[in-house]
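User: Show me a protein chain along with its predicted structure.
Assistant: Here is one chain, sequence first, then C-alpha cells.
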Amino acid sequence: MSTLASRGPATVPPSAAPNGLVDSLGARRIMVVLLCAYSLVGPLIETLVTDRSTYIEGKTATAPAAAAIAEVGSMLVPAVAASAALLFLLFSQVSGPGLLVVVLPGLLLAANEFLHGRPPSLGLLLTAAGGVLLVTVRVKPPDLVVLGYVGTAVAAGSIVAMYVDPSSVLISGGVGLFEKSITGAPLLAGIFSHSNILGMFLAFTLPFVFLMRAWPLRWLSFGVIV
C-alpha cells in the first residue's frame, strides 16, 4: 500500500496528451466540403448558363461567372492553405511526410514548366494546396465519406436531369460524338463539359461510399454512381 501511495497520481504519456490545436470532426469535414464545393461550383454554373447543344469543349468560351470562380479560387485556395499550414506549424504538429506527399507532385509540375521556359501558374499548385489543407487539419479516412455523398449527389442529379432537361447534361458537340458510346445512346456529361470528366469524377468518389455506416445507403449510393 505504501508503495502504491508513493507513486502519486498516474501521469498521461506524452504521446497521449493533447497535441496542438483542437482536433474537430466538424472542422475536418467542413474542409472536405469546401474543397468539393470549389471543385464543383464552377462546372455547375457553367452548366446552368451555357447552351450545351452548341458548346464545344476547348472552343466555346467559358462563362464569365465560372471563369471568375476559377480565377479567384486559384489564388484563394493556395493562400488559405499556406496560412493554415503556417498556423499549424506554429501551434501544432504537422506530419512532415504527409506534407511532402501532397506538395511534391505540384512542385514537380511547376519545375517542369520552368524547364520548358514557361511560367508556372498557380493552378498547378491547387492540388498541393488542397492536400496541405487536408493534412494540416488532420483529415482522417472516415472524414472522406463526404466524397461518397458528393459523388452520389452528382450522379443522382445527372440522372434526374437526363430525364428532366437532357440538353443540359448530355455531352456537347452534337450527335457526331456519339460513336464513342457503347450503346449508341447519347453520352451523359452531367455538370461537366465532357462525359470523360464525369466518369473520372465518379470513379474517384466511388470507393468512399463504403465509408457510409448505413448499409442500405451505402449500396444505394454504389448503385447510383455505377
